[in-house]
Automatic annotation (TrEMBL), chain A:
Family: Belongs to the adrenodoxin/putidaredoxin family.
Secretion signal, residue range per the UniProt entry: none
Gene for this chain: thcC_1
Species in which this protein is naturally found: Paeniglutamicibacter gangotriensis Lz1y
InterPro entries (alphabetical): 2Fe-2S_ferredoxin-like_sf (IPR036010), 2Fe-2S_ferredoxin-type (IPR001041), Adrenodoxin-like (IPR001055), Adrenodoxin_Fe-S_BS (IPR018298), Beta-grasp_dom_sf (IPR012675)
Protein's name in the database: Rhodocoxin
PANTHER family in UniProt: FERREDOXIN-2, MITOCHONDRIAL (PTHR23426:SF65), FERREDOXIN/ADRENODOXIN (PTHR23426)
Source taxon at top rank: Bacteria
GO BP term, example: P450-containing electron transport chain
Lineage: Bacteria, Bacillati, Actinomycetota, Actinomycetes, Micrococcales
Automatic annotation (TrEMBL), chain B:
Location of the FAD/NAD(P)-binding domain: 23-327
Xref: Pfam families: Pyr_redox_2, Reductase_C
This protein's name: Assimilatory nitrite reductase subunit
Keywords: FAD, Flavoprotein, Oxidoreductase
Organism: Paeniglutamicibacter gangotriensis Lz1y
Named cofactor requirement(s): FAD
Entry-linked InterPro entries: FAD-oxidoreductase/Apoptosis, FAD/NAD-bd_sf, FAD/NAD-binding_dom, FAD/NAD-linked_Rdtase_dimer_sf, Reductase_C
Domain Reductase C-terminal: 347-430
Gene Ontology molecular functions: oxidoreductase activity, acting on NAD(P)H
One cellular-component annotation, GO: cytoplasm
Amino acid sequence: MTTVHFTDAAGATTTINANAGDSVMETAVRNGVTAIVAECGGSLSCATCHVFVAEADLPSLEPMGEMEDEMLYGTAEDRADNSRLSCQIRLAEGQELHVTTPETQV
Amino acid sequence: METLIVPSLAGAEAPTAGTATGLLIIGASQSGVQLAISLRALGYTEHITLLGDEDHRPYQRPALSKEFLQDKVGSESLIFRTNEYWIEHHITLVKGERIASLDSNPDGSGFAHGTSGTDYPYTRLALTVGARPRLLEAPGAGLDGVVYLRNADDALRLKELAPTTTDVVVVGGGFIGLEAASSLASMGKRVTVLEYGPRLVGRAVGEETSEYFLTEHRKRGLDIRIGARIEEIIDDGHGALCGVKLEDGDVLKAQIVLVGIGVIPNTELGEALGLEVNNGILVDSGAVASDGTTIVVGDVANMPNPVPGAPTGERIRLESVNNAIEHAKVAAYSLMGRSEEYAGIPWFWSNQADMKLQIAGLSTGFDSTVLRRDPERGKFTVLYYRSGRIIAADAVNAPLDFMAVKQALAAGRSIDSVAAADPATMLKTLIA
């Protein structure tokens, strides 16, 4: 089972069974995780799907591209070493991912 | 710590369409969807019916001219929310229904009459009906193969025609035209873009940016004709098109003519309600129309300019995802009885081939520009100034510039124009 655990800034966790091949952003938005805004729908234009990835899960992710890296400097809550834009994280079959969402995206 | 397994949350059965009162949102668009979502997030307890005239679940439009057209994403990726989301949040979706007329009462309640014969009672009405493509006026414009690109069915039709197409003529060098032209070129089609005006994307960007896109698109193989005039779309003798004849005598071979020459706001229902209409339905800063009750949001709304510091009384109609979302949030507050004035920095994006354009602010009324170019890395930014203060930026493959300007504008600050001319200097460090 492919699963994403979203923990919000207040510490509450929502667990969603995801479809392999979807992005973390799509998984969040379609299921009403409101801490992910994703204005641009995943075209890497808005930096409103910012997440902090659990350190233990970081090695399982593909490295980020230059555009994502630059966009992360424009997030509403400052980036950290484990920051990613969730539209750029594709879920593999059976992957389990833990992310924390920032207090604000805009 | 609370853990919820979604989507196992069972919601109570939503009332059947046609029996629920509450809020009726006409237009299952980006703004209609956002209005419903924002209302539930704010604790709105009335029933919500979200009604659209397409046979699809509510979906996102931006990819239609890009990733969806190129088969890089499937239709499921365009869907806004799962079916479970709508059920859990007591939002009734009505697909494939067009509202033919409205009977409204002075208190804002009434009945909407669908062309299917179903009546939809409401206690409050919201219009998120958007805009429709402006139709091409030229001999042969009704031929099979002349297509527009506004909704999913348009994109599906284009995808259906694409495999047997070698040559495409795109009418209109705006965002939609250039995005679709780039997509079709990447699919191996020979593409010619006809722009009637003196430059590309003339309505949305300044001359430097127009020139940049003209040069770059030509480099990538698009045949772009500026100031082009169509004489006729040529019939193949069987009701389909086979080419486009220009006034200068040139004949372009084509199996598809894709028209992207702007949109017309769908004001008809607003007019039927007696609402004030002038390039869209007029609303106040809380997205309320002239009757004091009807909510109007998104592309169809003509509203006070939301840019902080804009002249009092200045009005604007914005066609963008960002506006659909932010305007809907303000409308949701109005429906909750809270008065929030719509204020914000409009922003836009357009992806064309390997060029990602991001626009922050509105450049209308600028008196000077500053260029930042880094050709090696494909970066290009135009900063727009009025009376020495920054008002907008067009940034291509330069998200740092885009975001610095967006942040400066949101904070009511500027960026020194002399220092900004050095592309090696980070704009973020110049915000003051």
